[in-house]
Design brief:
Elements: H1 4-20, H2 27-31, H3 41-58, H4 78-94, H5 101-112, H6 118-125, H7 127-135, H8 144-162, H9 175-225, H10 231-238, H11 242-260
Length: 261
């Protein structure tokens, strides 16, 4: 199988495609995105189950298009949106079967011995805990459905890693130790996503700031000199390299072209 980072990235992109697709995707269309990966039959089954369950889960209230415009701005506050998502999610959780600690430990032992069919059950067992972890970070990242999805994805990846690992099947291994490992992986998955999201937002803000600076500089110099500034004059005024200014101008042109279509 391909490396975990690549697989996770593809899984995440396919999940976004499914959530925004106007019509349901067939299993063949979904798996076409994983053609280059050496997935076993069981792994393909898990991917399809995860993506299909994710699609049903968030259709219950998290992707209402009336809440969001083309710029990603919500028509209602995020707290109200999250409350609807959480309500739908909690309603789903209330219908799930509950397991005792002894029963869950038996599932872990079967996982360690290589029974991949228990991964789906263990993923279900952890849904409430994933929600609890996601709620801890709602003040940092407002879209709780994104955090839940990332947490479930991290959990799924870790369960696949642990499947068939003899060194983890020691009967002496404490239940709390296994749970702590999974909790840590889920939390890290959510935190990594938030970090990546923050980095993208910072880059967007930096780009917007530079575009605004160049625009203001061009306007000022044109009024001052009676004609548009040369690239060299603009570079000297903004203290920005000429090659960067060319990239920004190219970006602005492409943006204008896309809006004109």
């Amino acid at each position: 199988m391909t490396d975990q980072n690549t697989f996770t990235e593809v899984l995440r992109e396919v999940a976004k495609i499914i959530r925004t697709s106007e019509s349901p995707m067939s299993e063949e269309e979904i798996m076409a995105y994983f053609d280059d990966m050496d997935l076993s039959f069981g792994q393909k089954k898990l991917v399809l189950e995860y993506l299909n369950n994710m699609d049903d889960e968030y259709d219950n209230g998290s992707t209402d298009n009336s809440m969001e415009d083309d710029n990603g701005e919500t028509g209602i506050d995020e707290a109200s949106k999250n409350s609807k998502v959480l309500k739908a999610y909690m309603e789903d959780l209330s219908l799930l079967q509950t397991y005792s600690e002894k029963e869950i430990m038996e599932l872990y032992k079967r996982l360690f011995s290589g029974e991949s069919e228990v991964i789906e059950t263990l993923s279900t067992v952890w849904l409430r805990k994933v929600l609890g972890i996601a709620e801890k970070y709602m003040d940092i990242h407002s879209k709780v459905e994104d955090l839940i999805q990332e947490g479930n994805m991290a959990l799924l990846m870790r369960l696949n890693q642990l499947c068939g690992t003899p060194d983890c099947s020691d009967a002496e291994r404490e239940f709390s130790e296994i749970e702590a490992d999974l909790y840590k992986v889920i939390e890290k998955g959510i935190m990594d996503y938030i970090s990546e999201w923050d980095s993208v937002k910072q880059q967007e803000n930096t780009l917007v700031g530079k575009l605004s600076l160049v625009h203001e500089a061009e306007t000022f110099l044109t009024e001052e000199n009676g004609e548009p500034p040369t690239l060299k004059e603009l570079s000297g005024f903004t203290k920005m390299p000429e090659d960067e200014l060319l990239l920004l101008k190219d970006f602005t042109m492409k943006l204008q072209e896309s809006k004109g279509r």
